[in-house]
Design goal:
Layout (H helix, E strand, L loop, with lengths): L1 H7 L4 H9 L11 H9 L6 H12 L9 E3 L2 E13 L2 E12 L5 E10 L5 E6 L4 H16 L3 H11 L4 E3 L5 H11 L1 H17 L1 H9 L6 H20 L5 H13 L6 H21 L4 H14 L9 H13 L1 H8 L4 H17 L5
Antiparallel strand pairs: 1-2, 2-3, 3-4, 4-5, 5-6
Helix pairs in contact: 2-3, 5-6, 8-10, 10-11, 10-12, 11-13, 12-13, 12-14, 13-16, 15-16
């Protein structure tokens, strides 16, 4: 319907929503299909301009904003870009080409983006203007920005782009999360320092309370949980995973009866195991790497049993078909390295819920 409307200027949505209105909803607080559509489908609607807004907004924080980016099923490439800074404030102007990888639709956009610090981030964009107008727009915005007149910058953006403005809320969810974390990086560091101080200086008391089967006061439990979750994530994300440290942290969480951030750990652990399995696919004789995968799976399944390991399972299944029979045959010839490889491989298969024949 969206593509049809863009091509023919005919809106089918009104009739569609009327049909949805007749369908009762099975979600609490939503009356019918129209409410479901308004709550979940409509906010997710994407067109080339929204992708362009995402590209323009995120360019402020990109290390190489002039590089081509893939944004879901779209490709965005910068044709002209200039960034100006004044203290914590940043302004960028540019021209980009957005293309759908599915229907191959293309759209060039001109944009201006302004970051005033913290979460105050706005972008304005429109179809390309004549190059002379584009350069004049850039000069006028830079002139106002350099003299610190942010009100004039926003006024000019509104005039030049016809009020077609976007904010942090228009970023896609993954980028929203990444950018918010980046904006809060100093705050996270301050919180971590404070919580680590509380945790380390009160560790003996925390341990004593748990040994006496006394629930930890929230003032002590919250810092301890934050620090352990933080340390677990750092160990999992490390280029070379320290499985001994991983085991130590998971044992500590269990000993102190602390609540782990299962959602974050599930995401990080799944990504790590899938990445390790991709590395193993390239080095199938690496017994040490296979041992690391087995140990990591054994530990991580104890804290996040429902990891998303489909990618790892697919890779492992292929290796099992191509490599396992050869290594199994070598075990009959008393090949110690092959025997160790097979033992580890079979353990990993069990962790992944696969049967190797």
């Amino acid at each position: 319907m969206q593509l049809y409307e863009e091509l023919t200027k005919t809106d089918l949505l009104g009739e569609f929503v009327a049909i949805l209105r007749e369908a009762p909803a099975n979600i609490r607080d939503l009356r019918n299909g129209q409410d479901v559509y308004e709550a979940f489908v409509k906010p997710a609607r994407i067109d080339l301009y929204r992708v362009g807004a995402h590209f323009a907004l995120s360019s402020i924080f990109a290390e190489s904003p002039d590089q081509e980016q893939e944004i879901y099923c779209y490709t965005a490439s910068m044709e002209d870009y200039k960034c100006t800074t004044a203290g914590v404030q940043i302004m960028a102007t540019g021209r980009a080409l957005i293309q759908s990888s599915i229907v191959l639709e293309k759209q060039s956009i001109d944009f201006a983006t302004l970051h005033l610090g913290d979460h105050n981030l706005i972008a304005a964009l429109a179809s390309p203007m004549p190059n002379e107008n584009f350069q004049q727009m850039r000069q006028e915005l830079e002139k106002a920005f350099r003299r610190g007149d942010t009100n004039e910058v926003m006024r000019q953006m509104n005039i030049c782009f016809g009020g077609n403005s976007y904010s942090l809320w228009h970023l896609f969810k993954d980028e929203q999360r990444r950018m918010v974390y980046e904006l809060l990086s100093d705050t996270w560091e301050e919180i971590e320092r404070s919580f680590r101080h509380i945790y380390e200086h009160n560790y003996a008391i925390i341990l004593m309370l748990r040994n006496m089967n006394i629930n930890l006061p929230k003032a002590l439990a919250a810092p301890a949980e934050f620090i352990l979750n933080q340390d677990l994530c750092e160990v999992i994300q490390a280029e070379e995973m320290n499985v001994d440290r991983l085991k130590e942290l998971t044992d500590e969480a269990a000993r102190l009866s602390l609540q782990l951030d299962k959602e974050t750990l599930r995401f990080e652990a799944s990504a790590k195991i899938n990445n390790l399995m991709e590395m193993f696919e390239q080095s199938r004789d690496d017994t040490q790497l296979l041992s690391t995968i087995e140990s990591a799976l054994n530990i991580l399944k104890g804290i996040v049993p429902d990891m998303d390991l489909q990618a790892a399972q697919n890779v492992f299944f292929t290796i099992g078909k191509e490599k396992y029979p050869e290594m199994k045959e070598k075990t009959g010839a008393q090949d110690e390295e092959a025997t160790k490889w097979v033992q580890l491989f079979e353990l990993v298969a069990g962790h992944l819920g696969l049967v190797i024949e």
